[in-house]
Amino acid sequence: MAALVAYLLLGAFAGTLAGLLGIGGGLVIVPVLAWILRAGGFPAEVLMHLAVGTSLATIVVTSISSVLAHHRRGVVRWPLFVRLTPGVLAGALLGAVLADALASDSLRIFFGVFELVVAAQMGLGARPAPHRRLPGPAGMALAGAAIGGVSALVGIGGGTMTVPFLAWCNVPVRNAVATSAAVGLPIAVAGAAGFVVMGLERSMPPWSLGYVYLPAFAGIVVTSALFAPLGARLAHRLPTGVLRRLFAIFLAVAGVRMLAG
């Protein structure tokens, strides 16, 4: 029962932050879920794999409402989505295969370093200056593969990479954010599917579907969907600039704790 309450609270926290700051929940879900599973006595050798795979599975569900909301506003650049998606799908599947080959500690260290990089980017408000045009088909495929691969390895929807890339290529930030939300769906679908298939080959804890732990998935999805609208309403009342810096501190602490094991 205590674990279920923890999953529900984690979903509420991740959903509120997603609505408040426009970030994906994976950066919060993965480290906190890893700590919850560790406290629950889950095997150390699959701890990070379960946290990352479950995070990707939750993003499949939660990203759908985000994509629909952006689509209704007409701000998704669907041609860009189409150009990025083949590379994203291949990269996310490859990322799941690579994650399966990595030890849990290696995956933990990679996530910790990535989280510190995102914390620095968010805390400093660093954004690449738009100074080039979108690359051709090969360049877009390569960019999509890199975004999908790294996102699958750390259990996120890819917005922390897709938005800066598109902004760097002179796509207006509003369209970059909306298109990134759309791109996050194939990342999550391919990544989660890869984690399910790879995990089926291992002996996993009960109630697991591959590397997706179903009780955590259900608890997080329910409350994150309920609390995301609350976060969106709070965004109009609270100083989001200050909150982003505070969240950057949270990410930095989480990243350091991940590296410290």
Q: Could you characterize the architecture of this molecule?
A:
With 261 residues, this protein is an all-alpha fold. It has one domain. It contains 10 helices and 2 strands, in the order H-H-H-H-H-H-H-H-E-E-H-H. A two-stranded antiparallel ribbon has the order 1-2. Helix 4 packs parallel to helix 8 and helix 6 crosses helix 8. The longest helix is centred in the last third of the chain and has 27 residues. The relative contact order is 0.22.
Describe this protein with a few key phrases.
261 residues; 10 helices; 2 strands; mainly alpha; single chain
- The helical percent reads over 70%
Strand content: under 5%
Structural class call reads: mainly alpha
Strand order, largest beta sheet: 1-2
Please tally the β strands and state the result.
2
Distance between the amino and carboxyl termini:
26 Å
Report low-confidence residues grouped into runs of 5 or more.
Answer: none
What kind of sheet is the major sheet?
2 strands, antiparallel
Count up the helices: 10
Gyration radius, in Å = 17 Å
Count of domains: 1
Average pLDDT, rounded to a whole number, is: 89
- Rough shape? globular
N-to-C series of helices and strands: HHHHHHHHEEHH
What is the fold's blueprint, element by element?
Elements (H helix, E strand, L loop, with lengths): L1 H20 L4 H14 L7 H26 L5 H24 L2 H21 L12 H18 L4 H10 L4 H27 L8 E2 L2 E2 H21 L5 H21 L1
Antiparallel strand pairs: 1-2
Helix pairs in contact: 1-2, 1-9, 2-3, 2-10, 3-8, 3-9, 4-6, 4-8, 5-10, 6-8, 7-8
